[in-house]
Amino acid sequence: MDNLRANRFAVLSPNLAVPRLEDMERGFINAWIRMKSNIALESSPPKLSFKQEKLAQNLAADAHSRRMRQAGLTALTKEARAQVTALARSGATLRGPSTEDEVYQLAADLHADSPWMREVSSWVMQHMLAHVGAGGRGLALPPVILAGPPGIGKSYYARRLADYAGTLSRLIDVGSGSAGFRITGTEKGWGTAQAGIPVEAILSAQVANPVMIVDEVDKAGEMRSESGRSTSLTTALLPLLDNGTAQRFECPFYRLPFDMSRVVWIMTANDTDLIPAPLRDRARVFHLGGLNAEQAVGHFDRLAQHLGDAAELEHCRAFIVQMTNAPRGISLRQIGQLAEALRASPAPKAH
After folding, report:
1. How does DSSP assign 221-254, residue by residue?
2. Which H/E stretch holds residue 89?
3. Which residues lie below 8 Å from residue 286, measured CB to CB, with a gap of 6+?
4. What is the pLDDT of residues 102-157, one digit of tens each?
5. Which phi and psi angles does 57 have, rounded to 5°?
6. 10 Å Cβ neighbour count for 176?
7. Are 216 and 268 a contacting pair, CB within 8 Å?
8. So what's the pLDDT on residue 10?
9. CA distance 152 to 157
10. Strand pairing of 144-147 and 284-287?
11. What is the pTM of this model?
12. Which residues make Cβ contacts (< 8 Å) with residue 345, sequence separation at least 6?
C-alpha cells in the first residue's frame, strides 16, 4: 500500500474531491439513525419516517450544493465533475522507472531502437539515475528540444521513450496553427471551448506524467479569438515549461488549478534559429545529424525481420545506402514504407 501511494501524485487539490450526492444522503440518514438510537437506547437501529428521511435528503442536497460551489465545480458537466473528483480523490499515477535497473533497461531499449540518438538516450539515463537516486519515481525529464533534419525520427523517438517508460504520449502539431489553444485549452469567447491536450490526457488516463510531443516548434504561429484576443505557442508553453508556474497552472476551461509539473515536454524542430529564444532557454537542446548508411540499414533490418527473401532484403539494403548518400538523404518514414512493401508482397512459392 505504501508503494502504491508513493506512485501517486496530487495533480488536483484533495479539497476538490466532493462526495457524490448519494453518498452524502446516506451519511446524513445514517447519522440521524445513530442519533435516534443513542437517545432511545434501543438495541436494534430505529427507522426514520418518510418525512425525516426526506429532510435528511434535503439537508444533504444543500450541503452538497455548498461544497460544489466552494470547489468551483458547479459549471462543469456531470462527466467532467466525475473525472475531476476522481483525480482529486486518488491522485494520478506516476509511470516509468523507479529503480536503477529500470532506468538502465529504458536506456538500453532506447539505444537498441534508435542508436543514432545515443546522445539523447545517455542524457535521459543520467538524468533518470539522479532522479531515482534521490527517491523520485516515474519518468521525469526537464523540457527537451530535438533539432535536426526532417525524417531522422525525432517524434518517433519521443513516442518510443513514452512507450518504453510505460506512460502515454500525445502529439501536438504546431503546423496546424492552433497549437497554443491545444496546449492551454480555451474558454468562452473562442469558437469552441475545450480543455488543452495535457489536461485532457491527465484527466482521461489519470496519469500525472504523460509525454507531450510538440512537433515543429520552429513553425509556431499566432491565433486570434472572435473577440480579438490572441495566443501563441510561446505564450502557451512558457508557464508549463517552468516548474514553479506549472505547479499552479489554471486551466481556462475547467477554471481549476492543476499541478502540471510532472508533464514531460519534448519539442522537435528542423531549424533551431527559428525557435523563439524563451523556448530555447528553458529546454535542453540536442543538435542531431542525419542518419548514416549503417544506421539506416540497421533500422531497416529491425523492421524487416522475417520479411522477404535474401535477394529482396539485399536489394532494399543497397537502395537504402544509395538514398542515404544522396543529397536529400533518407527518412525513417521511407524506410518503414520499404518494410511495409515487403510485408505486403506475396510470399515466394516453394519449389
Report:
1. -EEE-TTS-EEEHHHHHHHHHSHHHHTTEEETTT
2. helix 78-90
3. 119, 120, 123, 144, 145, 146, 147, 148
4. 999 999 999 988 989 999 999 999 999 999 999 999 999 999 999 998 888 899 99
5. -65, -40
6. 14
7. yes
8. 93
9. 9
10. parallel
11. 0.78
12. 308, 312
Query: What is the DSSP code (8-state) at residue 74?
Result: T
Q: Is the Cβ–Cβ distance between 323 and 291 less than 8 Å?
A: no
Q: Decide if 254 contacts 310 (C-beta within 8 A).
A: no
What distance in Å separates the CA atoms of residue 318 and residue 336, rounded to the nearest whole number? Answer: 15
pLDDT given for residue 241 in this prediction: 95
Residue 58's identity, in one-letter code, is N
Cα distance between residue 319 and residue 337, in whole Å: 13
Give the phi and the psi of residue 66 in degrees, each rounded to 5: -65, -45
**DSSP states along 167-223:** --EEEEEGGGS-HHHHHHB--BTBSS--B-HHHHHHHHHTBS-PEEEEE-GGG--EE
- HSE-CB at 236 with a 13 A cutoff on CA atoms is 29
Strand partners, 251: 256
Confidence of residue 2 (pLDDT cuts 50, 70, 90): very low
Of residues 99 and 313, more confidence is placed in 99
324-328 average pLDDT score: 75
* SS3 (DSSP) at 36: helix
Digit-coded pLDDT (tens) for 238-273: 999 999 999 999 988 888 899 999 999 999 999 989
